[in-house]
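FAQ: What does the model actually see?

It sees only this:
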Amino acid sequence: YGTAPAIWEAVGSAAPTEADRNQAIATYAAGRDAKAAVRWVYANAEAYQINTHYITALGGSAGALLSVMLGVTEPEDYRDELTVDQDPTLATTHLDQPSTVHTILDFWGSDGLVSALEGAYGHQRFDATDAPILIVHGDEDPTVAFSEAIDLRDTYESTGAQYEFHQLVGQGHSVWRATVAGKGLDELAFDFVVAQQSLTVE
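And it is asked to produce this:
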């Protein structure tokens, strides 16, 4: 599951089962890879004609945790915990590039990768400058508890950052065919991004 800082491994070692411990440690590598992927986009924006002023992070379940992390954490998070000497692969990940995303689409996720930073390092990252977030979550989700969505919504509410929240009544996990006020989730997400990024649709 990749290289992780010693403190991250120490925090993960407190998990109740070996599988939980491995998963806890693996989340660091996942977060680091996600940050590196966004930096790659910035580094290659000219070659692929990407407008980096309009980047959205989207995910469902574990992907949503990564998306929330990308929109909330600081550039150094999931980047500077290890040095290039400790992990030489970092040298290939465009460390000089930003990792900013401008909107978050969170489908049945949580703030787990953000709270993990607080658990390991004491960093509290939520503030009013966080990327606007769309939170969509089934209230009968057996995999990621609906309370996680409530907590994330309440955190955004407390900081004043922009958010939109949708409770999928009677729905579980990964319900991609769900609708909200007659809209499919793809349309819901599209409309949110257009509104938050002040895009012109032709």
